[in-house]
Design goal:
Belongs to the UPF0337 (CsbD) family. This is CsbD-like. InterPro entries: CsbD, YjbJ_sf. It holds the Pfam family CsbD. There is one protein chain. By secondary structure, this protein is mainly alpha-helical. It has a domain of 45 residues. Helices cover 93% and strands 0% of the residues. The protein has 2 helices and no strands. Helix 1 packs antiparallel against helix 2. The chain is rod-shaped. The chain starts with a helix and ends with a helix.
Length: 71
């Protein structure tokens, strides 16, 4: 459940970063564009990390279930 929240927050940060990046490009504001790019990439990283966390937890639960069956 926590990983899902992290994924949502990462996606939100990525979206805000895209908006900043586009606004910076449209206005010629390189600082805003750079901050937007950084936010977008940080959000994408958080999102992918949360996805990996979900995968690991799912695999661990699957292995626990198989171990219980074999006991």
């Amino acid at each position: 459940m926590a990983a899902q929240g992290k994924k949502i927050r990462g996606k939100a940060q990525e979206t805000v970063g895209k908006a900043k990046q586009k606004a910076g490009e449209a206005t010629g504001n390189e600082e805003l564009r750079a901050k937007g790019t950084a936010d977008r990439l940080a959000g994408k990283t958080k999102e992918k990390t949360a996805e990996a966390e979900q995968t690991v937890r799912g695999t661990a639960e699957e292995l626990k279930g198989k171990a219980r069956k074999n006991m």
